[in-house]
Design brief:
Layout lengths: L16 H27 L6 H27 L5 H26 L3 H14 L5 H27 L3 H25 L5 H29 L27 H10 L7 H43 L1
Helix pairs in contact: 1-2, 1-4, 1-5, 1-6, 1-7, 2-5, 3-5, 3-7, 3-9, 5-6, 7-8, 7-9
Length: 306
Amino acid sequence: MDVSKNKFNWGDQLFSVSSFLITFRETIEAALVIGILIAYVVKIEKRKLKRDIWIGTILGIILSVALGVIFTFVLGSFEEYEPIIEGFSMVLAAILLTWMIIWMRETGRNIKGKLESRIDLSIRNEQRFGLFSLAFVSVLREGIETVIFLSGIEAVEESQAAVLWSGMVGITIALIVAVILFLSGKRFNLRVFFSITSIILILFASGMLAHGFHEFQELGWFGSENAFLQKVVWDTSSILNDKTTELGKFLRTMFGYQDKPTWLEFFIYVGYYLLIGLLLFVVRNRSKSKELTEKTKVNQNASLTD
């Protein structure tokens, strides 16, 4: 890696698909939460509480931006440790991406009901800052995740400017989509949306994780070039070079494609897919078990009523 390289130059890269996808999804998630909160307080005729929600949202956005600036400034102050910082940024971003996918898979089905229950609880207990904190924490969480994700993407992409620009486009389009859906009152199939984006993000997370360990390999943390984990598994550079061909560069930045993968990177890829496959299988079975338990309780209550 060329540490002296100025990544804020545009270079040949004009757009970052991964940055756009991350910011679009994170913004949709935040907008979904805020939209549910506002719609519910209107439904129960507590319109005055909208003010608390909007204040929490705005402060969450401001703090997220501030943390993003601070995070970028702090990382830029340690250029001599750039390979280490980039490696850990990518590994952390991959872990958070995986957690986000699992969390949405497990709780996304009933997120509306859970949020409405928390609103009712805040109102019953007369918690003045209940809705404010709910909106604030929801937006701030998505903001912090976005900052970490983008830092991982910047370590992989050729142009930092393209990452930032694409991220802004993703946020803008997501907000437009959210406003249109909210004003039109039309239902959006979020389950399909999150399922499709989750598949893409799984591929992206695996590549980012492999990229992170590639940085550690270059630092010599896994032995010399003659060590087994450092040896090349196959060489497809003559067919699809990851540095000279456009498709190869796209696959490298988006999904972590390597034309000369080492055994370590190969094991990281395979191990990641096995792990997330197992986690999704467990979550799916647990969700089915919960649904079956809830249906059983409903049927029992109905029989007792009769």
